[in-house]
From TrEMBL:
Keywords: Hydrolase, Plasmid, Protease, Serine protease
Record Pfam families: Peptidase_S8
PROSITE patterns: SUBTILASE (PS51892)
Endoplasmic reticulum among keywords: no
GO biological process: proteolysis
Name of this chain's protein: Peptidase S8/S53 domain-containing protein
Length: 569
């Protein structure tokens, strides 16, 4: 069967895998397979070995759910031990497309660890508040002396007072927030705020979500999860309020609890399959809010887990992203609440990703947060951090305020047909956001989150929400087409102008969407980093043979500008 169904490049890749596996090399290549119906791993192994005669392993991606869920049970992880993805004679997507066709799969996606969610790098000799990188998106100024400026910007203290005055639960009391991230490290700002009964480590397969503070250099941002958790739930005190704590950082929901879920080792090595497992764990544990200060490529498995969480009335939010310009996934998904970044002047943070996918924005520039770093033995340091990581964590705390104030059960009882808490919260959040003068609502959402206005608006009235497909659907194709249009426009000829069209069919956008997004982000990073890293700019990403053929076809509107922009050779 292999000789009848596999393409030439796929056969080359298979021969390479056979050779490296016989040599006993390290590494592993993972491909997430989505079958058309639930199958037991042994059945899929047998089918896969017919077309891929190498050493391989197959396991359910969502083992705790696989047997009882018609959608999540269709995702399996195919592992090829001893294979280094970057050393293949072709693209990992070449092999994925061949497997998809040979096994009649809904999707087959390489589980690539991507670096498209950029985070700060400490500069030699710089002060503690400054972090920067060669993408030129970090602000080199001291953090504001007011350590709760972010809460004041979002009118959080007023929201707390309003809940108390109304006799409601205040400060997110009783609400569980799940945070898929690097885990957490010991810090005084998180004392009493963490819920380890719902925590886990997806990477190691145990219940200890400790961040080991080891990463691939400072760009990995060890301690990332500690900082983001602190701005959501730290028990610190705000002057002139009745709430007092032991810390100096104050979260938006200091009476909520946060369940840390370790699913990434660093923010520059993000596997969306691991994030998907973290989202599903949060759902299984009964968490009420999921906040994701991370992002990368579109992923059928992550989208399926996200939609299942939304269906179960969990509020799901994600950061728009940093420095690369375009909104990353999962924030780019239609049913996910995407949060951009602002500063103390009510302007937008220079590093915030932006676009029509962004729903609202929140403080992201020099937000005071807890700090733990590699080799660090201090447990009480704080400083001003930058990134939409903080914007989404702050907003997740506001979601907890809303749930506590109105009562989650009462809100669910008031939902309309097909409506979920995600739909109600997003609508009210966007309607009550405050809009500064000259605000760009097309790129940064309806405005800056206003917690007081949100609570004062009331629980809202029943509405509706349309279903969204689990696999790459129309809304995703639109997002990818928009991204590709942005990529190709600089290369388009003058007569094409604003009317430039990507020129790929919906079926092609669905088949090649993940790879196209990967190429686009790789190209963007190489371009913006070129002045500081000429070697990175000189090595364009290599597309699959199949996609290169599509992009190079003669006569199509896509042929020249998009292929040139993506540096297809």
């Amino acid at each position: 069967m292999e000789g009848d169904t596999m393409t030439g490049i796929a056969k080359e890749i298979i021969a390479h895998i056979q050779a490296v596996q016989s040599g006993g090399g390290g590494g592993a290549l993972n491909i997430i397979l989505e079958t058309r119906m639930r199958v037991v791993p042994a059945t899929l192994v047998a089918a896969a070995k017919e077309v891929l005669p190498v050493t391989l392993e197959v396991e359910p991606l969502f083992p705790a759910t696989a047997g009882g869920d018609a959608d999540l049970g269709r995702f399996q992880r195919l592992r090829l031990p001893g294979v280094v993805p970057g050393a293949l004679p072709g693209s990992t997507f070449d092999l994925a497309y061949a497997l998809k066709d040979a096994l009649d799969l809904v999707s087959a996606e390489p589980d690539l660890e991507t670096e498209f969610y950029r985070q700060p790098i400490r500069q030699p000799g710089a002060g503690p508040e400054f972090r920067g990188d060669n993408l030129n998106c970090w602000v080199n100024t001291p953090a504001p002396p007011d350590r709760v400026w972010a809460l004041r910007s979002m009118r959080v203290p007023q929201a707390w007072d309003y809940s108390v005055a109304q006799g409601r639960l205040a400060q997110g009391r009783g609400v569980s927030i799940a945070q898929p991230d690097t885990g957490v490290a010991l810090h005084v700002e998180l004392e009493g705020a963490l819920d380890f009964t719902r925590a886990t480590d997806v990477l190691e397969g145990d219940q200890n979500p400790a961040d080991d503070l080891i990463g691939d250099g400072p760009a990995a941002n060890p301690g990332h999860g500690t900082g983001t958790a602190s701005v959501a739930v730290s028990r610190g005190a705000v002057p002139a309020t009745p709430v007092h704590g032991a810390g100096e950082v104050v979260g938006t929901a200091p009476q909520a609890s946060l369940a840390p879920i370790r699913c990434i080792e660093s923010v520059i090595r993000i596997s969306q399959a691991s994030v998907a497992k973290a989202v599903e764990h949060a759902r299984q544990q009964g968490c009420h809010v999921i906040t994701m200060s991370l992002g990368g490529l579109p992923s059928a498995a992550l989208k399926a887990a996200l939609l299942r969480a939304v269906e179960d009335n969990i509020i799901v939010l994600a950061a728009a992203g940093n420095c690369v310009g375009w909104v990353v996934w999962p924030a780019a998904y239609e049913r996910c609440i995407a949060v951009g970044g602002t500063n103390i002047q009510d302007g937008t943070w220079k590093g915030s990703c932006h676009g029509p996918q962004v729903d609202v924005s929140a403080p992201a520039e020099l937000v005071w947060r807890a700090v733990r770093e590699a080799g660090d033995t201090q447990f009480d340091r704080i400083s001003g951090g930058q990134g939409t990581s903080f914007a989404v964590a702050l907003t997740a705390g506001v979601a907890a305020l809303w749930l506590a104030h109105h009562g989650r059960a009462a809100l669910i009882a008031n939902l309309g047909s097909g409506e979920r808490l995600q739909d109600r919260f997003r609508r009210l959040l966007m309607e009550t956001a405050r809009r500064p003068a000259a605000w760009n609502a097309e790129e940064y959402g309806t405005g800056i989150v206003d917690a007081e206005a949100l609570l004062m608006r009331g629980p809202g009235t029943p509405g509706g929400a349309g279903p969204e497909s689990v696999h790459l659907g129309a809304s995703d194709a639109v997002s990818i087409a928009r991204l590709l249009t942005d990529v190709a426009k600089p290369e388009a000829t003058p007569h094409v102008g604003a009317a430039f069209q990507v020129g790929l069919s919906p079926a092609e956008l669905e088949r090649y969407g993940v790879e196209l997004a990967w190429l686009a982000f790789k190209t963007r990073l190489a371009t913006v980093a070129a002045p500081a890293s000429p070697e990175a700019a000189a090595q364009p990403p290599v597309p699959s043979v199949e996609l290169a053929t599509v992009l190079a076809r003669a006569g199509g509107t896509v042929a020249n500008p998009l292929a040139k922009a993506l540096r297809v050779r």
